[in-house]
Amino acid sequence: HRHLLGIEHLSQGDITTLLDLANTYAELNRQPDKHADALAGLTQINMFFENSTRTQASFEIAGKRLGADVMNMAMQASSIKKGETLIDTAMTLNAMHPDLLVVRHPQSGAVDLLAQKVNCAVLNAGDGRHEHPTQALLDGLTIRRAKGRLHRLSIAICGDIAHSRVARSNILLLGKMENRIRLIGPPTLMPAGVADFGVEVFDDMAEGLKDVDVVMMLRLQKERMDGGFIPSEREYYHRYGLDSEKLAHARPDAIVMHPGPMNRGVEIDGTLADDINRSVIQDQVEMGVAVRMAAMDLLARNLRQTPVRQVS
Ligand code: CP
User: Fold this and answer.
1) Which residues form the Aspartate/ornithine carbamoyltransferase Asp/Orn-binding domain (predicted)?
2) In what order do the strands lie in the sheet with 43-48?
3) Is 261 annotated as ligand-binding?
């Protein structure tokens, strides 16, 4: 692959190859010397048009650990503020010969469009409601390490499915890896036609969580509910917030996940989120660095075999 734009473009084999490599980087990241040279001599530019803590920090750390020259574009201070378009901005940076462009954008499809215009490898760090492929890959690696496998598991994805690129990428990845997926949430936050993805849909947590191996909670994304129905946080927590009482319906060894940032007391009880016997939320963050190292390493191997095209 030339780019990493979405899980929809990856095969089961691609996912396994990437997670196997990420697993070796996860071990490296626990060593005192964390350096490798897979990206030595390459330039990585991170362009985040939307807020981020985990994704931006881990892409920066991943690039630096692999020896790339990493530049974070301060988009708030860029000429986007003077009316320059996304494509003109990308073409301007493209002329500086970056090798890897990491892009987060609030509009679905913006990263795919940009990838068609530049010569370098593009990694989607989240585009609107569309995809967040490295999040699904880090979730997959976290599950594989906690459960010893990433197939034939029963996995519940709970909450605001409709606005979630994390849910979309995870549904694609977990489906490709042959897991049983249950979506739980209020009908108002369930996208139309979701049953076509081969998932089971529930609006009751007790029913949906029954005997699952993995419980993946999602943030209530109020910023994406433009003009639509916004549930009251109290009511939402009562019906859909994960606490130990609702978790008791899952398997006794079920793990609890959340991509972050989380709203404690809205979609998840804070004490449960911090319970290291059940919650793997910090492992997800740790695996985020390893997965991004693996993704950029694999794309760089491709780049080195591909002759540089003339910039027109
Ligand atoms: N999970 C995730 O994408 O977090 P950030 O928005 O902080 O990057």
Assistant:
1) 153-298
2) 69-73, 43-48, 100-105, 121-127
3) yes
Q: How far, in Å, are 166, 189, 227, 235, 243 from residue 230 at the CA level?
A: 20, 9, 8, 11, 22
**284-292: average pLDDT:** 98
Catalytic residue list contains 9: no
Helix (H, G, I), strand (E, B) or coil at 139: helix
The question of whether 82 is a catalytic residue gets the answer yes
Name beta bridge partners: 217. 158
Mean pLDDT of the chain: 94
260 annotated ligand-binding residue: yes
| Distance of CA 66 from the midpoint of ligand 1 (Å) | 21
- With a pLDDT cut of 90, the percent of the chain lying above it is 86
Q: For atom 5 of ligand 1, which residue has the closest CA?
A: 52
Q: How far is CA 50 from CA 10, 47, 174, 217, 224, in A?
A: 25, 9, 26, 21, 12
CA distance 158 to 186: 9
Cβ < 6 Å from ligand 1: which residues? Answer: 52-55, 126, 135, 259-261
Distance 55 CA to ligand 1 centre (A): 5
Give the integer Cα–Cα distance in Å for 164 and 119: 29
**What is the DSSP code (8-state) at residue 103?**
E
**Which one of the listed residues 129, 132, 163, 258 is annotated catalytic?**
132
Measured between alpha carbons, how far is 148 from 23 in angstroms, rounded to an integer? 12
Looking at 3, 65, 104, 144, which residue is catalytic? 104
Q: Measured between alpha carbons, how far is 129 from 47 in angstroms, rounded to an integer?
A: 18
**Backbone angles phi and psi of 71, in degrees to 5:** -125, 130
Q: What is the pLDDT of residues 58-90, one digit of tens each?
A: 999 999 999 999 999 988 778 887 888 999 999
Closest C-alpha to 267, from 258, 276, 275: 258
**Is 219 annotated among the ligand-binding residues?**
yes
Taking the CB of residue 41, how many other CB atoms lie within 10 A of it? 11
